[in-house]
Amino acid sequence: MATTITPATLTVQVKEELTLGGATYDTTTTHTIANVGNISKRIYTLTAQTATTLADFDSSPTSPEFDYDDIKYIRITNLDDTNSVIITKATSGTSAAEEVRAGGSIYMIDGAKDVKGATSKAAQTALAEIQTIYAYSATATVTLDIEVVIATA
To answer: Are 30 and 13 in contact (CB under 8 A)?
Structure first.
């Protein structure tokens, strides 16, 4: 059976609106991402103080892994209204983490498949292919929800 799905273009907009002292500082950044053929959208409920695997990536994936060469777009949004979540992007040798505060999002746009971490304060000069994305709720007693969207070729 042949597919009936035709890849399409995903449009992502980031819009900022601010007026200070009567001056307007508005910016809209638009990214158009061609040839998106698959979309995965899921809400995860994170247990307090537990790491959860959000996605695995490989060059020759088996279900449910994603092919990192096909990554077009990733968005992770913290749906909690109070608590932060820690998102870790890991390679085979290193990992890098960032806090996503309540209501915040992080993005990887149009082929952003490479990441790198360090054990000390240093600028990175090379990247490695992402293998896993993890989420961690650092709160002691609260479960929280996050939304993960992954678009691939």
So the answer is: yes
Contacts of 42 (CB under 8 A, 6+ apart): 147, 148
User: How distant is the alpha carbon of residue 7 from its chain centre?
Assistant: 21
Residue ranges of E strands in the chain = 8-16, 19-20, 23-24, 27-36, 38-46, 51-58, 66-67, 71-78, 85-90, 95-100, 105-109, 114-115, 128-129, 132-136, 144-152
Identity (one letter) of the amino acid at 70? D
Distance CA 103, CA 105 (A): 7
pLDDT tens digits for range 45-89 = 999 998 999 999 988 887 788 998 899 999 999 999 999 999 999
Residue 130's DSSP bridge partners are: none
All residues at 6 or more sequence positions from 61 whose CB lies less than 8 Å from its CB, including other chains: 67
Sign of the C-alpha dihedral, residues 110, 115, 121, 126? negative
Other C-beta atoms lying within 10 Å of the C-beta of residue 41: 10
Is the pTM of the predicted complex or chain greater than 0.85?
yes
